[in-house]
Amino acid sequence: MQLVAWAIVCCEILFWVFIVAGLIVRYGFRRERLGFRLMAMSPVIDIVLLVLTVFDLSRGSTATIAHGLAAIYIGVSLAFGKQMIAWADGMYRRFILREQVSRERISKARKERNGFYRHVLAFLIGGTLLGAMILWLGDAEQTESLLRTLQLWGLVLVIDGVISMSYTVFPARSK
């Protein structure tokens, strides 16, 4: 497996290691600020992945699906990161600390729309990174997989939008 693919795997593992460590420090050791700092490392992990991706491409590597996935990972991490951390915090408090965690009561349609809006944000961030890599490399043959990744992601985004908005157009019936 190539450098960037391993970097994505390592970054995902590090993301969850820092989140779990932050939760343990925050609640187990009652060090809220240190716990917050540990959880706030996720953007740093994204920057490391971006640097590794740029480094790999600057060495003359042909862009692969892994380079495209790195851009997607960064976009998704930035768009959904806060929500994932809040989810992990709630799960920790509920299952480890045995606290009653109140859940925000929103409709399925609104939840789906919000998820789609975050997906659009992730696409804008990741798509910008993909576009920047394509322009920076400037060689159509070298960046073909990046363009295909962007096109496929765009198709996935459209499908997500149709499904998400269908919950608004056709709301579930009351039981």
UniProtKB/TrEMBL annotation:
> Membrane among the record's keywords?
yes
Alphabetically list the UniProt keywords: Membrane, Transmembrane, Transmembrane helix
Where does the sequence pass through the membrane? 6-29, 36-55, 61-81, 116-138, 150-170
Entry keyword Transmembrane helix: yes
Q: Which domain of life is it from?
A: Bacteria
What name does the UniProt record give this protein? YmcC
